[in-house]
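Need residues for this backbone.
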């Protein structure tokens, strides 16, 4: 495999990472890749040149915002609020799938091409592998913790403390991972991949959001888009995908409101 398997541990991760963590604001500054990409629909294999922005930086932005929201919410959970625990458990399952889908795109569609053309060195590959491995580990640990809370299988206060600590770790690790990818990989994607390869990459990311992991992925992403960005996204996907979004967005909003609002507000 191109991306090496690594065990998850602070010491190994520290060895693989650069000398210092990259601040979250660097991700925000570099995430808006204004390279022109292609227009596509989620059920059309054709590639048409267009002026729409890439969906990839929009997904990265939503991942960062969601991890911050998760950290804030978990810190405010109450031990006896099972309804909220269960709603957050359902939401987190979808969010974790989005993080892992991003890893899969990087590991199967991006890194192999860059490495085959000599654009990435071993240190960079090791850094990305360590990032992905550690984030995936924390995702699993948090999923276990929120699942225990949702099903009432342990002492609520203790598991809330554990989940809160894991959510803080996840926010830090994911922000660091994404900003390193933006610094080390995104410029190479723009300069190394061909127009057709960029189009294929963006189309696969769009299909994942609008088809393969819908309805959660599509409604989740749209929550983090400005009106103009949302309209642009809707114009790029098929009518069935737009119908799915319209039919599910209200129930998604009710569920996320339960998950992220204190009991007195939900």
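Answer:
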């Amino acid at each position: 495999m191109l991306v090496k398997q690594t065990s998850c541990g602070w010491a190994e991760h520290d060895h693989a990472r650069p000398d210092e963590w990259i601040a979250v604001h660097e991700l925000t500054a570099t995430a808006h890749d204004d390279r022109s990409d292609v227009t596509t629909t989620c059920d059309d294999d054709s590639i048409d040149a267009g002026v729409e922005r890439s969906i990839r930086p929009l997904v990265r932005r939503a991942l960062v915002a969601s991890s911050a929201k998760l950290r804030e919410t978990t810190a405010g959970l109450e031990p006896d609020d099972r309804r909220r625990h269960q709603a957050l458990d359902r939401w987190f399952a979808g969010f974790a799938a989005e993080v892992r889908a991003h890893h899969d795109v990087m590991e199967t569609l991006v890194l192999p091409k860059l490495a085959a053309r000599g654009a990435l060195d071993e240190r960079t590959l090791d850094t990305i592998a360590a990032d992905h491995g550690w984030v995936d580990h924390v995702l699993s640990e948090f999923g276990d913790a929120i699942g225990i809370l949702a099903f009432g299988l342990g002492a609520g206060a203790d598991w809330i403390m554990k989940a809160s600590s894991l959510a803080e770790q996840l926010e830090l690790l994911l922000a660091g991972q994404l900003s390193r990818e933006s610094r080390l990989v995104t410029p190479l994607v723009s300069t190394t991949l061909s127009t057709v390869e960029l189009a294929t990459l963006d189309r696969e990311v769009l299909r994942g959001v609008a088809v393969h992991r819908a309805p959660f992925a599509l409604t989740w992403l749209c929550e983090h888009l400005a009106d103009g960005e949302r309209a642009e996204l809707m114009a790029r996907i098929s009518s069935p995908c737009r119908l799915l979004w319209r039919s599910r967005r209200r129930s998604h909003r009710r569920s996320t409101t339960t998950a992220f609002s204190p009991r007195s507000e939900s």
